[in-house]
């Protein structure tokens, strides 16, 4: 087969000549495209405004699961594609923008988040680096976050996809400080690094330790107290014992808002332990750290300003469109030393388009990265930190109120203190044993979800299955919570009557 230059050119020539002035991917008629785009915006706004009228969640119909249709080889008008989204996706969303969604920890979005996503699409910034305005929006956002947590204003920081990534990055910096620059070339070698967190820590902490090649055994789960916060004495003792056994303690990960119950570890005690034992203090503040937005709640974070790194999400309790999170590292130089590279083809002169060093890419691993700083930046500008803090305070007051309702109800039992925005409780009845009660409560949660009444999730606390209500939702009203308190005992009795044999409580 010949592949001469002339035959290659002749093969594509007609294509170039015919269309050389027009993009193949832009609308032929901007006027009608604009109309179609405005219609899509209206659909988005209607959906946001009316989401509460539909059930919070419903089991998916078959057509919404159908992924059989093959690769579209010729396209369809935008309107047709938007219609498909309207039919196939919008009626079958998770429900996290609905006032009765309290499962796991999810942000509920805001209408102006839709606008930020629109502008973001138009800008289409690659915020890995180079010298352009979006870089400075991200830097300003990071500075604001330093201000919020009383960090040095020139601390290191990066916007990431989630707290999972932010924690991985934070622990990588911790390891770099412990092992020095050699770690970049030689890896972990035969060091015996160990890290510590509470038994209530999020699974992302273990994943980070695994990914760093340390193995999950290198993460010690320290017992918690009755309030589900870490037992600081047990932590200190474990570190001393590990050191005596020849291991190398290098990091403690505290939970600020533990995922199960919202417990906040004693940051000052952990700071002191870390200082004594030369450990890095990384804060997993995925949702809880943002109580810093509330002046009345901020004192509960005392000591966070001394932590070495803080990971938290904008997409949870700040309701920024997914996904957007942040890592702050007190020692900017250490942060840079962990990730920065000096590839000749990327840099050389801090001037022109390739200027603006150091780049966000010098603080993490993504080179091409989206402009996820725009959402939180716009929301903070529009709402101000106080209003966002007030929404967080309201959720905590609602949780306290819900806890009181549980305590006042003879068929309900609270399973953990309400320390933040999470209420863990269960339906109780004297007529069945412990295992059956656990199955009944799991079944109850699934029924609440499937009937579209509300979406709590379940968890296990001290061996008991709990109905877990995490209120990180600015749309929730007290009436929504009252409806839950009414539904749970009724549903519990109904399932009990229908159940008969314990097997009936098995989850499908
Ligand atoms: C959600 C969560 C994480 C993980 O954050 P992502 O943004 O989902 O990656 C970590 N820790 C806690 C306490 C969380 O609630």
UniProtKB/TrEMBL annotation:
InterPro entries: Aromatic_deC, PyrdxlP-dep_de-COase, PyrdxlP-dep_Trfase, PyrdxlP-dep_Trfase_major. Signal peptide: none annotated. The keyword rRNA-binding does not apply. One of its GO terms (biological process) is amino acid metabolic process. SUPFAM superfamilies: PLP-dependent transferases. Keywords: Decarboxylase, Lyase, Pyridoxal phosphate. It comes from the Bacteria. GO terms for molecular function: carboxy-lyase activity; pyridoxal phosphate binding. The keyword Cell membrane does not apply. Its cofactor is pyridoxal 5'-phosphate. The modification N6-(pyridoxal phosphate)lysine is found at residue 316. Pfam families: Pyridoxal_deC. Belongs to the group II decarboxylase family. This is Cytochrome D ubiquinol oxidase subunit I. It comes from Halioglobus japonicus.
